[in-house]
Structure formats: C-alpha cells, structure tokens
Amino acid sequence: MTAQLTLRIVTPERVVLDEKVDEVSAWAIDGEFSILPNHIPLVTALAFDVLRYKAGGQESIAAVLGGILEVNENTVTVLSDAAELATEIDETRARQAKERAEAEKTQRADKLDVYVSELAFSRAIARLKAADLSRRKGSRRHSESGL
Ligand code: ATP
Question: Which numbered atom of ligand 1 lies nearest the CA of 88?
Fold first, then answer.
C-alpha cells in the first residue's frame, strides 16, 4: 500500500483538521515547501499564509496564521494560534479586518501598535488568499465537469 501522511492542524481552540493525505505544501518564512510520505523529520516556523494538501487527487486549502510545522514518521503536525479551512473562512470579516488593520496602521505612532496592525493585516491577507484559491479551484472543477 502507498504510504500516506497524517495531517493534523491544531489551534488552542480546536483540531482544525486530522486527515490522511498524500502531500502537504506550506509556506515557511523563507518560501514554500512540500512534504511527501517518508520525508525526513523536520521542524520549521510557518509564515502567515496558505497550506495546501492533496488527498485522492483533490487539493484543499487552509489558512494557517504562523506557528510551527513538524514532520515525524509520516505525521505532519501544525500548531498555530489560528487556522481555518478555506471553506470556513468568512471573507467579509477578513476584508473588514484588512481594512481596519490598514487604517489603524496609519493612525498609530507607537512601533508596537504598528506591528500589531501589520500582523492583523497579514492574517487577513492569508485568509483572503486561502478563500480566493479555494474558490478558483472550485470553479475550475465545475468547468472541468461541464457544470
Ligand atoms: P478579526 O479581527 O476578524 O477577529 P483576527 O485576525 O483578529 O480577525 P484571530 O485573532 O486570528 O482573528 O482569530 C480569532 C478567532 O476567529 C480564531 O478562532 C479564528 O480562527 C477566527 N477567525 C478570525 N477571522 C476569521 C475569518 N475571517 N473567518 C473565519 N474565522 C475567523
């Protein structure tokens, strides 16, 4: 039988995902990387970005807002302060969070406050990217199936 990966995405609030998958791609702070079964053990810091995973030829998307990714014995564990499957993302909320963060950034003088606004902005951008990628995939699948 072909080896698979167990992908677990965990936040302080919940287990976002616990599934068998064939491939995981995520963004580390220095670029995107992919994990296939039988990968060597690895620990890396994640950027605020999308995580893509493939199972049975279907690709799915999640937003992962930083954290740590560990690979060990065909288990990929992601621990992050916040993460959502693309299908769970409220795009209106993310758009509002982006606009709020942009406005706050220009109004704030304190460096730490500016940094906090930049983090909020990056979270919103990652969520919008995940929702957008997921929608494009959905519409491509529909056009492929003639719908
Ligand atoms: P907001 O200002 O809209 O709350 P935020 O970036 O400050 O955004 P977080 O602190 O990262 O939010 O997350 C708080 C909780 O809300 C987490 O459970 C996270 O998964 C969820 N969450 C945040 N934004 C969204 C969204 N656009 N869609 C779905 N869940 C979200």
Answer: 29
Homologous superfamily (CATH) of 5-86 is F0F1 ATP synthase delta/epsilon subunit, N-terminal (2.60.15.10)
What fold does the segment set 90-145 form as a domain? 1.20.5
Closest residue by Cα to atom 19, ligand 1, is 82
Torsion angle of C-alpha atoms 119, 70, 21, 139, degrees rounded to 10: 20
Q: pLDDT tens across 15-65, in order?
A: 999 999 999 999 998 999 999 999 999 999 999 999 999 999 999 999 999
- Say if residues 25 and 19 touch (Cβ distance below 8 Å): no
How far is 72 from 108, CA to CA, in rounded Å? 43
pTM of the complete model: 0.93
